[in-house]
Amino acid sequence: DETVRIAFIGNSMMYRNDMPRFIQVLGERSRNRVLQDSCLRGGASLPTSLVNGNGMYGKWRTRAASIEDGIYDFGMCTVPQLLLGYDDNLQENNANEYYYDDGKNPCFQDSNYYEFLTEKNEKNPPEWDFVIFNDHTRYPGIEEQRSLSLETLEETYVPLLQETNGTVIPVFLATHAYESSVA
Fold first, then answer.
1. Highest taxon of the source (predicted)?
2. Is residue 120 within 8 Å of 113, Cβ to Cβ?
3. Angle at CA of residue 174, ends 56 and 18, nearest 5°
4. Mean pLDDT of 11-34
């Protein structure tokens, strides 16, 4: 049996079907252990994931995400916290207002969750084999947004990946672009 460690950074294309836990279950059924964690937010792009962090507070308060009494697996609260196990800019309840707070980031809404993650990462800093990136569906097809994503990858994500504990293989999930019919 082999352990495969996978981090997920993306948007609703990943969380609607609970892709991180789905991949974990697939691994278990193939006799491989899959350790997963994520930083997901609906509508996120690679650049906005860095500014907003996790947006799963209202989404993953489910039985499948239950870790222990009152604690749910919302994922890591920011991209640096996910990749490195810490984020010097992340403070309990966003006290320094570094990140955009729209009520969806679990570390800003639940101090117990913030403390839980801090202790978890201090005891066992994350190590990743793969990081699966999902940019906003339309970004690759629009030159200005594609350029912004590429710049963000080069200037922020690549240095973060180089700082991780291990040899990380980035994987890019490209989804089909669609038009929203919401008026």
1. Eukaryota
2. no
3. 30
4. 84
Percent of the chain past pLDDT 90, that is, above it, reads 51
pLDDT of res. 17: 78
**Backbone region of residue 14 per phi and psi (left: phi > 0; alpha: psi in -120 to 50; beta: other values):** alpha
Q: What is the mean pLDDT of residues 123-144?
A: 88
DSSP H helical segments within the chain, as ranges? 12-15, 19-29, 46-52, 79-84, 106-109, 111-123, 143-152, 158-163
CA atoms within 13 A on the CB side of 120: 19
pLDDT in tens, 32-87: 889 999 999 998 999 999 999 999 887 776 777 777 777 778 899 999 999 999 99
Q: Scanning the structure block, which residue is given the tokens 């994987």?
A: 171
Q: How far apart are CA 49 and CA 80, in angstroms?
A: 10
CA distance 43 to 126: 26
Cβ atoms of 101 and 69 within 8 Å: the answer is: no
Report helix, strand or coil for 37: strand
Burial of 101 (0-12, 13-18, 19+ CB in 10 A): middle
Q: What Cα–Cα distance (Å) separates residue 118 from each residue in 76, 86, 112, 114?
A: 10, 8, 10, 6
Is 113 in contact with 74 (CB distance < 8 Å)?
Answer: yes
- Which pLDDT score is estimated for 140? 75
